[in-house]
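4-hydroxy-3-methylbut-2-en-1-yl diphosphate synthase (flavodoxin) structure dump, as promised
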Amino acid sequence: MFEFLDRPLERRITVGVKVGDVMVGGGAPVVVQSMTNTDTADIDATVAQVAALHRAGSEIVRITVDRDESAAAVPHIRDRLARLGTHVPLVGDFHYIGHKLLADHPACAEALAKYRINPGNVGFKDKKDKQFGAIVETAIRHDKPVRIGVNWGSLDQELLTRLMDENQNSGSPLTAQEVTREAIVQSALISGEMAEEIGLSRDKIILSAKVSQVQDLIAVYVELAKRSNLALHLGLTEAGMGSKGIVASSAAMGILLQQGIGDTIRISLTPEPGGDRTREVQVAQELLQTMGFRQFVPIVAACPGCGRTTSTVFQELAATIQEDLRRNMPVWREKYPGVEVLKVAVMGCIVNGPGESKHADIGISLPGTGETPSAPVFIDGQKAATLRGPNIAKDFQGMVADYIERRFGIGGQRAAE
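structure tokens r here:
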């Protein structure tokens, strides 16, 4: 008999961490987060981008805090967002002088919902532990969680050198790649233990260990998950642009999520020049939704097209419907509870079109090349109408809107009860 895996494996239960009003780990749904690429000292630009990321679905947003001007701007950014009705936890990304910035700008330390520190560059030699401790003590004082974020681009060289030396003197040495992976894991675990010794409780610690190669990321996080039950942030760093970044991030994180590893994710895409930063949020949502972990927006199934579908009508309609659904979701989540489970099909010909449309909540099978210019519409598995003429796309859009109102509006909810 064949055994089919029809759902993700059970989530690995980690210690829950409250970031603002968002729970990370502890059995909570996997959280989507993102990061701005504005100069944080530019309050207007940063507020606009944080708000856009949150509207797109980012549940936590990280901002760079790299100098006095950016630290001073943080409380103003928080307050401006609140006046706009945008209540999203802000995470401060600190490198090199985080201890000083937090000490010199207590309003910044209070405004942030979480601090992110990198043990590879928090300080060097005899200053490292002291400066790491200063940040942790500030977090304790302000009751803030900390993400200890290791990155192999800035890995603790003292730790790596020591492990390389030990490996060289061992009877069966590992490869340099394996030693580097171990150094990444140890850096995260040792720093987490140090934070606990200083007094930061386990429900205030999130670990991450970012690398830029898929197999390395999988190996590192599998090992981290074996050795710790602290909450884990997943992310493939320097993933790249466009489809390369999307494929690499999805491949790496998809495998880990399938194994129940990961409590919050970020898709680190390099945007096109002048590109939309919210793309990384959309990809993260699509990954979690495709794998069956979360529901964010209605799914639109559309055929890929072939020689039977030289018309571009079905492509244009599928794109329009998908864009309409995504654009309206911020309002629809409030107005139509449950609308994110909606399934829409936009098909291009009669081969698979009718069958696929029947499987959706509402679907249309547009005429392919040489077929009769009519488009049957199926609702809840039954043929409901046949659309003809030049306004097929507009007519179908109206039917989708009517279906949403009928099923997810107040009247539809009462009928379901």
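The first helix runs from residue 43 to 56.
lmk if u need the other ones
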